[in-house]
Design goal:
heterodimer; A: 6-stranded antiparallel β-sheet; 5-stranded antiparallel β-sheet; disordered C terminus; B: Transcription Regulator spoIIAA; 5-stranded mixed β-sheet; STAS_dom_sf (chain B); STAS_dom (chain B); anti-sigma factor antagonist activity (chain B)
């Protein structure tokens, strides 16, 4: 997974989580708002139902009292007004239920019941309208009793509807719950007092003739009222508003001070003679009590409505707030995504792309210019530096390559020159041959391409064979050039030698004339007399050559002598030795005896002497081959550190002898 | 490569190499030239540690002698048998005097 994907997923996840949390909270708030609105609707409907049941209770009680106490053959205008009020209240309650159907589960059902109850009420009114016209006392009382029962049933039904609505949507808020309960108890109280008013009038006007169950009913109602007050007082505590508490206390005081004493006196007042005044007082007190209760209801309703209004407003505000938070979260998530993409993901993508191409050595890759001071800017700058360094490195490499090629060319040229020089130097060495009865053969191994060693064998114009071996101090090109000079000088000296001039004189002269700033050289300069069985050598710092007699005897010749070019005044002397047919003279450079084995030990003069003695019977080419092999074996893997050369001259034929014999 | 010491106006050059051959000779020459400096003209070359000298090494020693000039003198001390053999082969034992110890060389040069 790429970093950009990780960042995108994390950012998007974070944004989504934020939005989800906000949505969950918003849903909670919306649900709270819906609950509050439902409570509000329920409250409004219950308020209308309360108004309707109150109006109906009033109509019922007053209608009953008029039926019971009046001799008129029709109801007076008060009753007509009460009926109109009740109808209007019922209509309003019906309308409220209908509009609350969307929110309240049982609103439809309650509405149907109200409509049915309206029809029943109309039928009941028609029945008592007929009964009041009859004028018969007994029939009127019977109709009044029936009215009271039927109308009370309707009121109970309205109360039941209200309680259903309340039970369906019981507020969780403690104050609202308490107020709803108080309202229900006050309603019960109101109905009980209204009912009692009717019953009380019946009790007073019938005197002792009243049925005993009426009294029982009154007493039961009184019990209900006490219970209702008890329940109301249980609900009242400090959480309720002062206004509500004051209204409850006021109604309670009214009940205790005015209504309750009158109620207690009602039973005793049955025998009283001033009946008209008592009834009027009862009615008035009851109505005042009812008014007080209605005032209490109004206060409660107003308090609940205000509180619900507050709750709805709070819920609405919270919902709007959380909606805004969810929106802000979404906007923030999108913004974060955009910023991260623009400030992190895209620059990193560009940098990584450029890095990959640079790593592939594509130095033409453009690296974006850093306009920022953050990590991305640092990375971009580092990448630009890297690219600049890479370009510089590439240029340096190219230059180095060019220098290297130049060096290689120069080296090739030099090597070519050296190889040419080596070829020339090799060509200057005499090939194995027989000159005036003297055969010669050689071994030649430069330590590099060219050598400071050289030798030559020359037939002298005056007879005899001259030869020499030269070893210039040092080795390599300088020594090789000097060796060429030395070879030329000695060769010319031999070729231009005067007849009587001894070879030691030749060497002394070369030594005198040898330039001081050139390296010195050691040499064996010699001659073989072709007319006599003798040879002569001059030794100049060179190792003593080995004379190999035809008998196999090996004798070193000479001992010492100044090298050429070291001491200008040096004297040289020659050594003469018998050199018969089959005798050989082996001349070698110090590179032979100074050949080292891998442990650093020299081949040594002693070992050379013994080796030559051991192979003294071998023919010259074999002897040289064996010696070369022996030296190579001795050396092993190590390099030659000095030039190695060997020259063997051998008398194969003594001409003068032939001439003599 | 070498260490020097001056005793009674005689410069003693102690060669601290086992071999004095073509690979060492040029550098050795430089060092000795530096050690010679101004008016030194008596020099003892202590070859006690040297096992082998080749023709290049010999060339350097002769060049040191030439540098000391006709009034100068160069003595060789503590040369081993191989070195002595080279000196005798090239007759350098007739040009330099060989001593067994640096002390004897110094005494003779001083005298």
């Amino acid at each position: 997974m790429k970093i950009r994907d990780i960042i995108l997923v994390l950012t998007a996840g974070l944004g989504l989580a934020l939005i989800l949390v906000a949505i969950v909270l918003l849903r909670g708030e919306l649900s709270k708002l819906e609950t509050a609105e439902r409570l509000q609707a329920s409250n409004a409907v219950r308020q209308e139902l309360l108004v309707a049941s109150t109006a109906l209770a009033r109509e019922r009680t007053k209608t009953f009292i008029q039926l019971t106490t009046s001799n008129q053959d029709a109801f007076d205008a008060d009753i007509a007004q009460m009926r109109a009020d009740a109808d209007e209240a019922l209509n309003r309650a019906g309308t409220a239920l209908r509009s609350g159907e969307a929110l309240l589960a049982r609103a439809g059902e309650s509405h149907a019941r109200i409509v049915a109850n309206g029809r029943r009420l109309t039928a009941l009114r028609a029945r008592i309208d007929r009964a009041i016209g009859v004028g018969d006392e007994g029939a009127r009382r019977a109709a009044a009793a029936a009215w009271l029962t039927e109308a009370s049933a309707l009121i109970d039904d309205l109360q039941a509807s209200r309680l259903d609505l309340l039970n369906d949507n019981r507020p969780t808020d403690a104050v609202l719950a308490a107020e709803a309960n108080i309202r229900a108890y006050v309603d019960i109280l109101h109905e009980a007092i209204a009912f009692n008013e009717a019953i009380g009038v019946a009790l007073l006007t019938q005197g002792n003739g009243a049925p005993s169950d009426t009294l029982v009913t009154v007493e039961r109602t009184v019990g209900r009222m006490s219970l209702a007050w008890q329940m109301i007082e249980n609900e009242v505590d400090t959480s309720l508003s002062a206004r509500v508490r004051a209204a409850v206390a006021s109604a309670r005081a009214h009940y205790r001070l005015d209504y309750d004493p009158l109620l207690l006196g009602l039973v005793d007042a049955q025998t009283s003679t001033v009946l008209g005044a008592v009834v009027a007082n009862w009615e008035a007190t009851s109505d005042q009590m009812l008014d007080a209760l209605r005032a209490l209801q109004d206060t409660l309703i107003a308090s609940s409505s205000e509180r619900l209004e507050l709750l709805v407003r709070d819920a609405r505000r919270s919902a709007i707030m959380f909606f805004l938070i969810a929106g802000a979260g979404a906007v923030a998530a999108v913004l974060i995504l955009l910023v991260v993409r623009r400030r992190v993901i895209e620059p990193i993508g560009r940098i990584s792309g450029a890095m990959v191409r640079l790593a592939d050595n594509d130095l033409s890759t453009p690296v974006p210019r850093a306009r920022r001071l953050d990590e991305v800017g640092v990375m971009t700058n580092a990448l630009r530096t890297f690219k600049a360094n890479a370009i510089q490195r590439q240029r340096t490499q190219r230059e180095l390559h060019a220098v290297h090629q130049n060096l290689q060319r120069t080296y090739d040229q030099l090597r070519h020159d050296l190889e040419a020089a080596a070829t020339i130097q090799l060509a200057m060495l005499p090939a194995p041959a027989v000159v005036n009865g003297i055969s010669h053969n050689g071994l030649y191994s430069p330590s590099s391409l060219v050598a400071g060693d050289t030798y030559n064998v020359i037939a002298q114009p005056e007879g005899g064979v001259g030869f020499f071996q030269i070893d210039v101090a040092g080795h390599g090109a300088a020594a090789a050039l000097v060796s060429v000079a030395g070879q030329h000088t000695l060769s010319q000296a031999i070729l231009t030698r005067r007849r009587e001039e001894p070879i030691e004189e030749i060497l002394a002269q070369v030594n005198r004339e040898w330039p001081e700033d050139l390296p010195y050289f050691t040499t064996i300069l010699g001659e073989i007399d072709t007319a006599a069985p003798v040879g002569r050598i001059v030794q100049a710092g060179h190792p003593s050559p080995l004379l190999i007699r035809s008998s196999g005897e090996v004798v070193p010749l000479g001992g010492s002598g100044f090298p050429v070019g070291m001491v200008a005044q040096a004297d040289y002397e020659s050594i003469e030795f018998a050199f018969r047919t089959g005798d050989r003279l082996l001349i070698y450079s110090d590179g032979v005896v100074e050949t080292e084995n891998p442990r650093g030990a020299f081949y040594s003069e002693e070992r050379l002497h013994d080796f030559v003695a051991g192979h003294a019977r071998s023919v010259t080419p074999d002897l040289l081959a064996f010696l070369e092999n022996s030296l190579r074996m001795w050396r092993g893997e190590s390099e030659l550190t000095d030039d190695v050369s060997v020259l063997i001259v051998e008398r194969t034929d003594l001409r003068s002898n032939h001439v003599i014999h | 490569m070498l260490s020097t010491e001056t005793i009674d106006g005689v410069l003693i050059v102690r060669v601290e190499e086992r071999r004095l051959d073509a690979s060492k000779a040029p550098l050795f020459k430089e060092h000795v030239s530096a050690a010679l400096g101004g008016d030194v003209n008596r020099l003892v070359l202590d070859l006690g540690q040297v096992e082998f000298i080749d023709s290049s090494g010999l060339g350097v020693i002769v060049s040191v002698l030439k540098r000391l000039g006709p009034s100068g003198s160069l003595a060789i001390a503590s040369a081993n048998s191989a070195v002595r053999r080279l000196f005798s082969l090239t007759r350098m034992d007739r040009v330099f005097i060989l001593y067994d110890t640096p002390q004897s060389a110094i005494e003779n040069l001083r005298a």
